[in-house]
């Protein structure tokens, strides 16, 4: 299952690079992984929700949006 997920993830990244710059696509790809791991940690692994962690996730998402806007 993990191998299929990795293959699918790389396929989606390569598809995105057809329409947006590589730097933007890769930044969004890694940001989704980081924020996704943060959400899984909180929801599945019962990791603590602190203001600092929420701020970090918000900054990551803000950076992703800014990269997308700058790449347009």
Describe, in plain words, how this protein is organized in 3D.
The protein is an all-alpha fold and 72 residues long. The chain has one domain. It is 81% helix and 0% strand. The chain is built from three helices and no strands. Helix 2 packs antiparallel against helix 3. The radius of gyration is 14 Å and the shape is flat.
Percentage of residues assigned to helices: over 70%
What is the number of beta strands?
A: 0
What structural class do helix, strand and pairing data support? mainly alpha
In whole angstroms, how far apart are the ends?
34 Å
Element string (H = helix, E = strand):
HHH
From the spread of the alpha carbons, the general shape counts as: flat
* Low-confidence residue ranges: none
Give me a quick take on this structure:
The protein is mainly alpha-helical and 72 residues long. 81% of the residues lie in helices and 0% in strands. The protein is flat, with a radius of gyration of 14 Å.
What key phrases describe this protein's structure?
72 residues; 81% helix; mainly alpha
Which helices and strands occur, and which strands form pairs?
Layout: H1 2-16, H2 22-43, H3 51-71
């Amino acid at each position: 299952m993990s191998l299929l997920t990795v293959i699918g993830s790389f396929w989606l990244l390569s598809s995105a690079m057809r329409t947006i710059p590589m730097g933007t696509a890769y930044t969004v790809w890694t940001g989704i992984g980081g924020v996704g791991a943060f959400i899984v940690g909180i929801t599945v692994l019962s990791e603590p929700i602190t203001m600092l962690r929420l701020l970090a996730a918000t900054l990551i998402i803000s950076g992703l949006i800014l990269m997308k806007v700058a790449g347009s």
